[in-house]
Each structure stands twice: as structure tokens, then as C-alpha cells.
Amino acid sequence: MLRYLSAGESHGPNLSVILEGLPAGLALQAERDIDPWLRRRQGGYGRGRRQLIESDRAELLGGVRAGRTTGAPLALRIENRDWQNWREVMDPAPGNEPRKRAVTQPRPGHADLAGGIKYGHKDLRDVLERASARETASRVAAGAVALRLLEALGVQGATRVVSLGGIDCDGGMDWERLEALDESPLRCFDRGAEDAVIDRIDRAKTEGDTLGGVVETRFRNLPIGLGSHVQWDRKLDGRLAQAVMSIPAIKGVEIGDGWRAASLPGSQVHDAIFLRDPDGYVRDSNRSGGLEGGITTGSELVVRAAMKPIATLMQPLPTVDVVTHEVADASRERSDHTAVPAASIVVLAMAALTLASAVLEKFGGDTVRELTERLEAHRQYVASY
Length: 385
Ligand code: EPS
Known about the structure:
The protein is α+β, with helices and mostly antiparallel strands and 385 residues long. The chain has a single domain, classed as Chorismate synthase AroC (Chorismate synthase, AroC fold, 4-Layer Sandwich). The protein contains twelve helices and 17 strands. Strands 8-7-9-15-10 form a five-stranded antiparallel β-sheet. α1 crosses α6 (136-152), α1 packs antiparallel against α11 and α9 (236-245) runs antiparallel to α11. The two termini are 27 Å apart. The mean pLDDT is 96. It binds ligand EPS.
């Protein structure tokens, strides 16, 4: 099992990540395997000015020697360059009270008010610093390592934006053109829809508003049999939904046909089973999104996530000041107009962490070699079933 933990505030000195349970012998280099994903998460049309300050890189601090994992917990940090501008506000040492730049006007849709009441803070910065989506850089660093492990086992992952601000930019999945996603400012395949989406983002910006969207993450060549039907908390669809729903601003998760399946008859929802040489058990459709009974079927895993618009509005909604109790405009932290392209990377990361963990649970092994041998034996068993 893989355990992932992170710590660190948006404007603190850094984000810290621990990833425990990686087998030994995985080839891993931050510049090659992690940093490109961090760069992808930072990009996308509609990001705010913070990304001009940051230049995210993973600094490996433990668990890796000479480009290979040792089996010890992996530790890494990502520097917050903006910390230099916030030292006085974010200083962990006492002596600076009252803190500068206190936030007392909670944003509807953010953790500000509920978190402030829960933890007894009147300066809501003590909530928003950790609730900030800056934290997703940690997820992407850990997820990139999980993805490296999956790739070493022959599993491939991909992620993209399929709609933004209510405009469809799906264009269909194409495993042969993944580099086109890096060239698209929206991380989508439908270049024809890009102008309309960009205009929509520009309009939101002018109006002081924000936009959400839908992203899709897929994995192919997963072994059959990850997850289990036997207990609620071992069902892989449930575990994926939890991992993806935990990403800030994600309000819906669907597997395969998801919501659409609810309005169709069963004959148009389930995937008929055939036995064909040399492939064995096959399906001609994949409406289930690669999961049946909480278990991987060997078909492509398809997870979609709905992201709500970011809660920080430059044209703010009404709120109440938690100190004066007067009516106020919600606080206006500098923010993004949309972060849907970035969210596509974060969904891939969380799904990769969940799948890598499920792989380790099923096949175990302390080394990548052991894991690979067990996976190969399993593939042979499946072929003879
Ligand atoms: C965020 C507000 C903005 C975003 C931030 C999430 O940060 P700032 O207040 O520094 O302008 O840029 O996201 C990131 C820093 C990031 O790296 O994704 C928020 O309030 O959630």
C-alpha cells in the first residue's frame, strides 16, 4: 500500500511530501519524472499572476539514491518562491501579532468560514493558506512518482480537459497524440473549440468572474483484478472517487458513462462479454469505464471529474465580516480565473496514487523486480482462465 501525506501553506516556505510504501529499485529522477508534471500543472490559460512567481521543482530529500528508490519513505519538497514576499505574514515564530494582511471576510464557496469556526480562527488566513489549491502541487509530485511506478509495469495514463465554462472541447480521446495536449493552452484535443473557450475565459476575467469545467483521466493496460467487490472500502471505484473528490473544487466524479447511464436501459449500459483468440475475454464497448463490482476489468479506466468555478471572485459575492459582523464584500485574494487545465493534471495524479496503491496491495513485493514477476505471473494466469 502507498501512503501519501503532505504539509505546507500556500505562502509558507515550501510544500513537503512523504510517500511511503514504494518498492526498491524504481528508476526515479525529479527532473525527468516529476518536474514536467509540476510544469504542466502550473500552466493552462486562465491562471493568475502567482504562476509567474513560482517555478515548481521537486527536491528529493529521502528514499532515493543514485536515481533509484531504496524502499525507504520518499521525501521531497517544493519551494514556494512567493514565501520571500510573505515572510512577515507567515513567520511561524511568535512576536509579530497582530499579523499583517489578516482576512476576516470569508469567501462563499471556500473553506474560510466553516474552517474558521471549526478551528477557532478569526484571521481566516489560518484556514485559506492550507485550503489553497497550492497544495495540489504536492499531489502532483507524489502522483508523478506513482505514475512512474505504473509506467514501469506497462500501465499508461493520460488526462485532458473535455469542457470548460460550459463549452465542449472534448474532441475524442487519442492516445497517439498526447503531446498535442502539451501544445494546447487548455490541455484539450479539440483545437477548433479553443478560441471560443479562450474568449469565454477572457469575458469571465473582464467580469471579475471564474469558470469551472470537466476533465477526463484514463489508464490503459491495467491488470484485471485491482480492487475488490467483497468490502465497501476495497471497491476501487469508491476509492478513486474519494481520492478525486478530495481535490479542491471538485464536486462530481463519474466512472465510464456515469450520470448518462442513469437514464438509459441496461441493454445500452452494460458491456457484453466475448471470448476470442488470442485476446481471451473481451468487450466491444467500455461503458463501465473499466470497473465492474469495484474491480478493474482490463478495459481502459475512465474517470471524469467536475470542477466548480474558483471561489475567489474579483467581483465578490456578499458575505459577513467575522470580526465586525457587518455586511461585507468577500475577500479578494489574487487568484486564477480558471484552473481546469491544471485540475486535469491533479486528477491524473490522484488516480495514479490510488491505482499504484491498489497494484501494491494485490501484488506486493519489496522490489520492482518482485512486483514485475508477480504481475507477469498474474497476466499468464488471466490468459489461461
Ligand atoms: C489560490 C489562490 C492563488 C492561486 C493558488 C490557489 O494563489 P495566490 O493567493 O498566491 O495568488 O494561484 O494556486 C497556486 C498557488 C498553485 O500553485 O496552484 C487559492 O486561494 O486557492
